[in-house]
């Protein structure tokens, strides 16, 4: 037996190997969805480079777009060559690295802070495990998954006929983004006891670094130093398919190692189950306004929602301020008119509509996370304590669903208002822009509700699979849209499998689609409540 207070053989990370195997088994669904989405995003654009830019004229037109419209550089990446593969990497860089980092953040936070919050880590403390075995296991799995994603991206690109060197470089760029995300998550998990807050801090930091890179690249000249000051800039400067700079990956590796070391050092300075930031204890008795399931659910999500709202507002405002002048200047360009005709909007609004429909996916992810809180509460036992009082399970669950429905409505309203305000401040806009863009973003809300309702139905009927089914509903919409744009699958498949297709003007005028989607979301929610009423809790 191990003596009380004795350190297990192997140091603070002793026992990490069996915990890593447990993480692989427990998070197998998250690993699969994360890997498929990331590899699909990375391969989708580059694999279709030949059809996207089939001629030299097409590539020259895209090169001119990147020079004229700084928003592409801000949210995506710079282009370092006018080859089809290099231009496709420029488009896929932002989404690919973001998806890779987000998956790593979710994995590390769930395997560390989530385990502490559920009480399972405390139960395992009686075994001969090192104090930081769970952190070491989570990082090992996340870093290994990042390496596997890098290999899959590189192999997939080579299989499509892309040059081997550029394929390997882009694979490493995507995999290294996962490593940086894992390091940021490991550090964030030491500061707060809340899993949602830790996810928000880590991914928010990664996105902020991406924007710092974008601002430096967009400004050009002496400001280009900013692209060498942050990990996203190092990844961009690897330059896949454009004279690869392999040495730019070295600071990424050093940064990941430094973040991991910092996480271990910070973990020594806090108590298990607590964070370095003190938790507000609050008054002994709650106000009457908080004595309802809806108020409790809203209070549980308020920090996460506030962080998301701040990020969305910052992105929307920057997009409006920077893009307004450029779109007004180049609204008469042939490619802008072609995009506007396809979307059915005015030329000066074409780019904003395009970006808004890209941002709806991360906002839908926030709604899925809000619904999955129900499962976390049930698994942790807090739901059982709450339901032992005069609160019915359906009423409790519907309160959380209401907050999950409220979140995307608030975030999309903030996005529309921020874009409209940015257009007003950055170009020849007016107060009507606020109304126009807010109306556009709010028309997307029912499509997000459908995804959240699918997760809620899964929670009621198949609680052990609710996370997998919820993320699959969102991932399917993303992957099928990418496949449609690359010509891999017919457009009708997107219309049949994704609610987002019915509110996107590119696939036809929305018409009554938002109302139909809202009714569908209500029906799915009712089915989920009925299923929850009939099953045992906990399950």
- Helix content estimate: over 70%
Give Rg in angstroms.
23 Å
Helix-strand pattern, N to C? HHHHHHHHHHHHHHHHHHHHHH
Name the poorly predicted regions: 1-7
Main β-sheet description: none
How many extended strands? 0
What percent of residues are in strands?
under 5%
How would you describe this protein?
α1 crosses α8. The protein is an all-alpha fold and 539 residues long. The N terminus is likely disordered. It has 22 helices and no strands. The chain starts with 15 loop residues before the first helix and ends in a 5-residue tail after the last helix.
Which properties best describe this structure?
disordered N terminus; mainly alpha; 22 helices; about 550 residues; globular
List strands and helices in order, with pairings:
Elements lengths: L15 H11 L1 H20 L1 H4 L3 H13 L1 H6 L8 H35 L1 H5 L8 H27 L4 H28 L3 H25 L11 H6 L12 H19 L25 H37 L4 H10 L6 H31 L1 H6 L5 H34 L4 H12 L2 H17 L4 H20 L5 H7 L15 H22 L5
Helix pairs in contact: 1-8, 2-6, 2-8, 2-20, 6-8, 6-9, 6-10, 8-9, 9-10, 9-12, 10-13, 13-15, 13-17, 14-15, 15-17, 15-19, 15-20, 17-18, 17-19, 17-22, 19-20, 19-22, 20-21
